[in-house]
Amino acid sequence: MKFDSILQAVILDLILGLVLIFILNLRFVRPLQELQQSSEKIAAGHLDQSINIHRKDELGALADNLVIMRDAVKEKVESLQFEVNQHQKTKNYIDNIINSMPSALFSLDRESNIVLWNYKAEKLYGIKSSQAVSKPLDKVIPKMKPFMDNISKTIQTGDPYYFPKQVTVTSQGLVYEDITAYPLIADNIEGAVIRVDDITEHVRMEEMVVQSEKMLSIGGLAAGMAHEINNPLAGMMQNAQVVLSRIQGEIPASVEAAEAVGITMDQIRAFMETRGIVRQLELIHEAGVRASQIVQNMLSFSRKDFSGKVRQDISILLDQTIELAQSDYDLKKRYDFKKIKIIREYHPDTPQVLCEVSKIQQVFFNILKNSAEAMQEFQSLKDPVFFLRVKQKKDLVCIEIEDNGPGMTEDTRKRIFEPFFTTKPVGKGTGLGLSVSYFIITDNHNGEINIVSEPGKGAKFIIHLPIV
Ligand SMILES: Nc1ncnc2c1ncn2[C@@H]1O[C@H](COP(=O)(O)OP(=O)(O)O)[C@@H](O)[C@H]1O
Ligand SMILES: [Mg+2]
After folding, report:
1. Residue nearest ligand 1's atom 19 by CA
2. Using one digit for the tens of pLDDT, what is the confidence trace for 96-106?
3. Residue of the CA atom closest to atom 10 of ligand 1
4. 283 CB neighbour count, 10 Å cutoff
5. pLDDT digits (tens, 9 = 90+) for 171-197
6. pLDDT at res. 160
7. HSE of 62 in the Cβ direction (CA atoms, 13 Å)?
8. pLDDT at 304 over 60
């Protein structure tokens, strides 16, 4: 009996214990586990994690606090994200501005290491930003070395520096740059911003303006002089011609005059021949012809309107001029034009140009003749070559005549179109060939003529003629 009641009590206790455990589990352990899992997920960044515990006791308060905390964190994260986005946008905007600048821009830190390198700098120097950043400027662009001292001064003193019109020799010819160093002082970051502007085109235009003004004044002067010389020269030549014909021919008036002084025309002629007077007169005439050719060239400086313009294939003109030069006796005396190899690059669909044929031929001839002369003088040149190119460029026809001769210095290059500029000895060069060519192309044909040349690297004449 006693045992039974004990057993009963134990079983009852057991059942009661189990029920208690069950209730405890349901009421506290599960919600606690749920709360723990939720908080872990929130901690891992899942800020949309829901917490479904709604109770009035401490556990409920804990759950509510967790919800408040989750929402506060969520709000903070969102606002931070917004700010980050905003910063990114601003950064992109500034990057865009810096990269769309027409100037190459790069910034340096105190030690002159590159911090920023814009798109134009990538293009100008052919160096990617990733290859430039963090490296010293003079290692990335060695030609900046001479400016490094002044750039350091800019960083230290805050005074900007300006290095105008810096010249570099590149495979495409001379390149001119303006370089400016500005101090950079912001939020204790010290350094400098360097701006590099490519002013090559600007310098070329400037040179062209100076050139055309110079040409205009010298050309006008020369043309005026030519007019003045023309008449007396014609008189001299005519008179020499008259003297010759009075001696050489049997003109009745001459025969009569000879008879009147008691000699014959044959005696006079014999005397003149013996004393070389006829030869002297012929020399006067020859010199006169040369002088009048020069005067004719000079006169063309002022001649603006040419009537005889026709449509013409430039490549045909160029070939005709080559043929002309190859058969020119005067040229042949000095060098054999046929020795020069000719490489033609004529673009087949190049339109015809409205031009005065003989004048354009004269230009080609002057250029070819100069080049042949220059190549002849260039002792080390074994295989002289002409490159002839004709192609269309928008509404212009572009003609290039290039040689592989000695080229020229910058000083010569700047002056070759000047009337009377020559580097040849007296009697050999008049310095008129290229100036006449210049006037024919620019004044008479509204075109352009330019020269690209460096010592030892040949000369390239580039002519642009409008198609219409
Ligand atoms: N192809 C060339 N290569 C080198 N120098 C040249 C070339 N063409 C022209 N020159 C230079 O330009 C100068 C002027 O040429 P130009 O006006 O024809 O006069 P000239 O031939 O009478 O000297 C020449 O004296 C020469 O120094
Ligand atoms: Mg010449």
Report:
1. 431
2. 999 999 999 99
3. 370
4. 12
5. 777 889 999 999 987 767 689 999 999
6. 92
7. 12
8. no
Q: Which ligand is nearest to the CA of 449?
A: 1
The model's pLDDT over 319-345, given as tens digits with 9 standing for 90+, comes to 988 988 887 766 666 667 888 999 999
> CATH number, domain at 112?
3.30.450.20
Asked whether residue 397 falls in the same domain as residue 273, the answer is no
Token representation of residue 310: 């026709």
Residues 424 and 314 in one domain: yes
Residue 458 — left, alpha, or beta (φ > 0 → left; ψ -120 to 50 → alpha)?
A: left
278 with 289, same domain: the answer is: yes
Q: Please write the tens of the pLDDT for every residue from 235-294.
A: 999 999 999 999 888 899 999 999 999 999 999 999 999 999 999 999 999 899 888 888
Q: Which token pair is 450? A: 């330019």
Which ligand has the nearest atom to the CA of 381? 1
Distances (CA, A) of 374 to 148, 255, 381: 42, 54, 10
393 CA distance to ligand 1 centroid (A)? 27
Ligand 1 site residues (CB inside 6 A) read 366, 370-371, 374, 403, 405-406, 408, 412, 416, 421-424, 429-435, 459
Domain boundary among 155, 179, 198: 198
CA angle 185, 190, 191 (to 5 degrees): 100
Residue 258 domain boundaries: 201-302
Residues 217 and 287 in one domain: yes
